[in-house]
Every structure is written in structure tokens, then in C-alpha cells.
């Protein structure tokens, strides 16, 4: 199928917008993206708007009236089928610290992902917690927040076998560095979040294997000046990556440099 549009955002190469542009799809795959008029009459010519790569959302707690913490196949199916309406083609259902039995939720997710309906692709599950800083709980249940003991980490890895992809934790909590190393060695992407860590603690977490930041700056202390914490300390390093969410909280110069360079 050949699709032409007034504006095309390519997914690779130099950043920019092709005006006009076209996309050639062959056997269900994008075979060519180029600027200028199409080489033949297109199968579909868009009169306006953009063609752009689909979005990948690493944290979807729910949508369309569905809470993904609920083991409800009909609800999960609704999210999968309708997320493409938002431009999202793949995502991580995200479970927060609100479940007394996280293992059963992960096992449900594994069963659902094994035979999903057509729609946005489920890449795995993001578990946000329960290894968080109690003082940065946010919407998470404080009574379910626990330290990342070796036993708790092993239980999480066992329950999430084959489906767990991302874990958000607070690196300053006792046992977190060992937990980060264990999770990273198991192929899990460790993200720093719901934390009041200092820059030194974040640097130690990155050294242990953390590679992402969840809710950049949102859960740092905003009522007192303190060393750069969970926001700037992580993405200020050359090997740190962060899905940035805008914050108006005051930040140290190092944190501001990290945010401006984060992607």
C-alpha cells in the first residue's frame, strides 16, 4: 500500500518533516519513507494531517474507564483495541502498589498477553513499586510499600517470569542497590521513581544497573533546598535515559542540565 500525505515524520534518519511525503507498506511492513510526490498514484492520499511513527507508552495505568490493576480481560481488551486511537501502537500495562497480591495480577497479565486481541501490542508489564520511599508514595498504598529484600525481589521475578519488563523503585531504600543489580541481571529495566534520593544515591543506582527515571522531579522534595536528587542525578549521567515529564519544581543547575539533555 502506498500512502501519501502533506506531512510525513520519518522514524529514522535526520529529524524533520517531509512536506509532502509518502510511505510504502509491503507485506505489512514499512518498506520506504520518502519526501516529495509518490512514484505512482497512491492507494490512499490524505488531504491533511501527518503520518508519523506510532507511539510506545511505557506506563499505562488505565484508560477508557479501565483500571489495568483489575484482572479483567474485557477491560484489558478494551484498552488494547482502543489505544491506537491515541496514536499508541505498543505499551506496558502498569501495576502500582495497590494490590495485596501482586503475583496473581502478574500471572493474569501473562495469560492475557499470551493471546491478546488485535490492537496495540503489549510489550510486557511495568511494576511501579512496591519498593518505593514511603514519603513519596503519591497514589500508592503506604501499607503495601516494602523494602526490596532478596526474598521479595525473587518472588517478583518468579511471578513476573516472561512478562515483567520494567520495575520502578526508590534507590535510597535499604536493599535497593542489590535489588537493582538482581533485576538488571535478569533483563529487567530498572527505573528510579517515587524517591527522595540524593545525586550520590542516584549515581550508585545507575552504577548498579538503573537506566530510567519515572515521573522526573515529581516526587522530590519541593519545600526545601537539597542536593540534586532523583530527577537530575540520573539523567545527568551519560548513560542515563529518562522519559521526561515537565515539572515546575526548582532544581539545581545539575538537574536542569540533565533535564535539558534527557530524552
Structure explained in plain terms:
The protein is α/β, with parallel strands linked by helices. It has two domains: 50 residues, no CATH class; 207 residues, TIM Barrel (Alpha-Beta Barrel). Helices cover 25% and strands 23% of the residues. It is built from seven helices and 15 strands. Strands 7, 10, 11, 12, 13, 14 and 15 form a seven-stranded parallel beta sheet that branches. Strand 14, helix 5 and strand 15 form a beta-alpha-beta unit. Helix 2 runs parallel beside helix 3. It is elongated and about 60 Å long. The C terminus is likely disordered.
What is the total tally of β strands? 15
Secondary-structure-derived class: alpha/beta
The mean pLDDT is 83
Q: Give the number of domains.
A: 2
Unreliable spans are: 222-229, 232-236, 242-263
- Helix-strand topology string: EEEEEEEEEHEHEEHEHEHEHH
**CATH class term of the largest domain:** Alpha Beta
Briefly note the CATH topology name of the largest domain: TIM Barrel
**Helical residues, percent:** 25-40%
Percent of residues in beta strands? 15-25%
- Main β sheet profile: 7 strands, parallel
CATH architecture of the largest domain: Alpha-Beta Barrel
